[in-house]
Amino acid sequence: MVGLVLTPEQVRAAPPEVREWLKNLMEAEFAGELGTAAPRPHAIALAACSREEAASMLERIQSDHLLSQVFFELGRDSPPGAPELPQVHRTAIADIMRHTRLSNLNQLGACLNALQDVLRALRNDPTVVLFALDQRGAIYVDGTTHQSIKRLWLDLINAQMAERAAAAPLSRPGFATPDAAMAAEPRIG
């Protein structure tokens, strides 16, 4: 086992991901001693969205750039050291705010509520719950929903890369393909 001593200045100067990791370690370490158990968002029945449902949600929101960004944040992997709960995925509100460049919580709240409304309309169920929040600044979604959004993102990226590769010429500017080089050579004869 290795001990580590950090000054408050070092912690403040650390990247946000490291500060979040340290915070999670400290909370986990002292949760038992302080009598404050970790939040139990899994007590709420969160919606488990399939890949097809995630794609349908994206289709309905794709014209709203900010809403699409928040949607894909729900599929982003947690930083190392974040607490893992079975079947539930945790994302820090601060991370979503930073990644989407939102300036206040009201904007994030409006986006999350809009996403929930989209899912409710899609399922025709006004009681379905897409996410849960805790008092420690985290958003939780069902693990299946997280994986579905993540797979959708990866599928879109792979399709875009394949599209670019198909549209791009095989040669780079300034370099000729072997066929072009041979056609450009002067013939002796």
Describe the structure.
By secondary structure, this protein is mainly alpha-helical. It has one domain (16-165). The protein is 55% helix and 6% strand. It is built from 8 helices and 3 strands; from the N terminus they run ααααβααββαα. A 3-stranded antiparallel sheet has the order 1-3-2. Strand 2 and strand 3 form a beta hairpin. Helix 3 crosses helix 6, helix 3 crosses helix 7 (143-167) and helix 4 (65-73) crosses helix 6. It is globular and about 50 Å long. The N and C termini lie far apart (79 Å).
Task: Give a quick rundown of the structure.
The chain has 189 residues and is mainly alpha-helical.
Q: Keywords for this structure?
A:
globular, mainly alpha, single chain, 189 residues, 3-stranded antiparallel beta sheet
List the helices and strands and how they pair.
Elements: H1 8-13, H2 16-34, H3 51-61, H4 65-73, E1 88-92, H5 93-100, H6 105-123, E2 132-133, E3 138-142, H7 143-167, H8 178-184
Antiparallel strand pairs: 1-3, 2-3
Helix pairs in contact: 3-6, 3-7, 4-6
**Approximately how much helix is present in the residues?**
55-70%
Counting structural domains, the number is: 1
Secondary structure category: mainly alpha
Count the helices. How many? 8
**Spatial ordering of strands, largest sheet:** 1-3-2
Q: Outline the biggest β-sheet.
A: 3 strands, antiparallel
Along the chain, the helix and strand elements come as HHHHEHHEEHH
Strand portion = 5-15%
- Given as residue ranges, the uncertain stretches (5+ residues, pLDDT < 50) are 32-42
**How many strand elements?**
3
Q: What general form does the structure show?
A: globular
How far is the N terminus from the C terminus?
79 Å
Mean pLDDT: 78
